[in-house]
Structure formats: structure tokens, C-alpha cells
Amino acid sequence: MTALTITHELDREIVVRDGDVELFRYVYAPDNPQLESPRPYVFPIRTRRGLDVGLYRPHDHVWHKGLSWSLPVVNDENFWGGPTYVRDTGYVQLDNNGTQGHRRFTQLSRSEDRAVIEHELDWTTQSGEEYISETRRLTAAVTGDASWTLTFETTLENVSGAQIAIGSPTTRGRENAGYGGLFWRGLRSFTDGSLVTSDGVGTGNDVRGQRHEWMAFEGKQDHIDATSLVLMLDDTQNPHHPPQWFARSEEFAALNPAPFFSEEVVIPVGESATFRYGVGIADGTASDAPALADLVRGVLARDGA
To answer: What pLDDT does 305 receive?
Structure first.
């Protein structure tokens, strides 16, 4: 296996490479408009073969950013971007688009087949109020000739001085729209692709809102005859495990294990909540999803040891 390399570029992003292939860029200091709730994101994100699987700032939802930790309902604040869903009214553009701002790195390292990025962030509302102090850790690991895994771990400490309730549009009254958390937006060519669970294969309309430990998306590439697989797995210690899933295939490709789908997670003053996920990226098809889930589960267990 090729050893991973990690480089710090442009004073705003970390690049992890697998030989000559740039697996991903972690943009920790974005220059997005306030409307889009500026926050770190992973883009581009590629398979070991070098095929893109993510989409950045699509015209239909400019606040979608490849793979990112995005929360639309944090009390009445929006750390997702764009309009906020208001009960009995619908979506309204408010002056509540907050920022997840990089504070400092606590680790940038590589060893054998792993690369680690850890940093601290300050979550600030649009009005300038300090809300959350976060510690975030991303670990990339090669898991096979055709796959690699990204482990994402975050601890959110409530520094707002009041209780924080993290929810979703569904907890505010919009049916089956429980998005929020670690959110992946796929390529346009992945539209109408297949969503895979341990129960079988279906569409977003089939599986959205269901509870699963893991879910995968099989999508077709443009230009070449190739199929890629993106899989997300929820750690057993996460709140509300196994999560309900916000997933789409009909309008666009998206995966999101949503711990706040239909029930809020409340963080008291001075306390914290931790979430961990494994994301498997592979050159493969739906039939490869169960084996990829096993690999990702193993990496998540190892990184948590």
C-alpha cells in the first residue's frame, strides 16, 4: 500500500495524497459568504483511483460543500447555510447564519497508512455571540487496493451560557426533512443512483427516515465507465444510535446520518456532546457495500481505541 502524505497549503487547507492521487482537501478556513454559514469542508474528495465523488457549492443549494459538519437548527441559530425553516411559515432567510471558525491546530501528522488532522474551532452566531467550542479530528486510512476511510470525530462544548438544543427542520414541523450533521453531497452524475443498506437497495424516497447503522450510495461516473461507492457508518456511542438517515437520490445525491432527525440533542451549559463517523470511499458497486462497511467499522474501532 502507498503511504499517505499530508501537506499544509495556502494557509487555509490541508491536502492528503495517496501517492500521486489527491484523496481530499480539508479547507479549514473558507472564504464563503455569511449567507452560506462559513465552515470547514472536505472537497474535493476522491477514490484511490482518483475519481471525484463530491460536489461543491451546487447552484441549487450553494451552502452544500462536499462533505461537511452542518447543523441547520441550533436553538434559533443556523450553522448550515441559507434560509431557516420556521414552524407554520416555511423557509425564511434570517440574519442567523453562523460561522465555524478555525482557532488552532492540535495535531497534523502521518504514520504508515494514516494521516491525522485535529483542530479547535469557535462557533459564533451572525450577531457575534460565542456558542460552541469544538474539537474536531479527521483521520484518513487506506483500507484496501480500492478503498480508503475517513474517520470524523467532533466534540461540541456549550459555551453559550444557556442550554443548546440541536434539531432539524423536522423537529420544527417539516415532515421527513430531518437533515443535519455530517452531510455528503454527491456528483451530479450520481443523481438517480442507488442507496444501499443492510436490508437491500432502494431510492432516497424508500430509505429516508429509516434507522440503520450504515448506508451507502452507488453512483455512476461521467466520461468513463466506472461506478463509485460512498458509505457512512454511525458509531455505536453516538446519540440516538442507530440514526435516522436523510438520504436523497431522485433530485440529487446525498447521505446524512442524522442524529437530530426527529428528536433534539440537548447540551446543557458547560457540557459537551461527541459524535463519531466512518466514511468509506471506494471504487466499487452496491454489492461491495457490506464488505466496505466491515472495513469502515474496523477502522472506527481502531481509531477509537
So the answer is: 63
Mean pLDDT by 10 residues, the chain (305 residues): 86 96 98 98 98 98 98 98 97 98 97 92 98 98 96 98 98 97 98 97 97 98 96 98 98 98 98 98 97 97 80
Q: What is the DSSP pairing of strand 41-45 with strand 21-27?
A: antiparallel
Dist CA 201 CA 185 (whole Å): 19
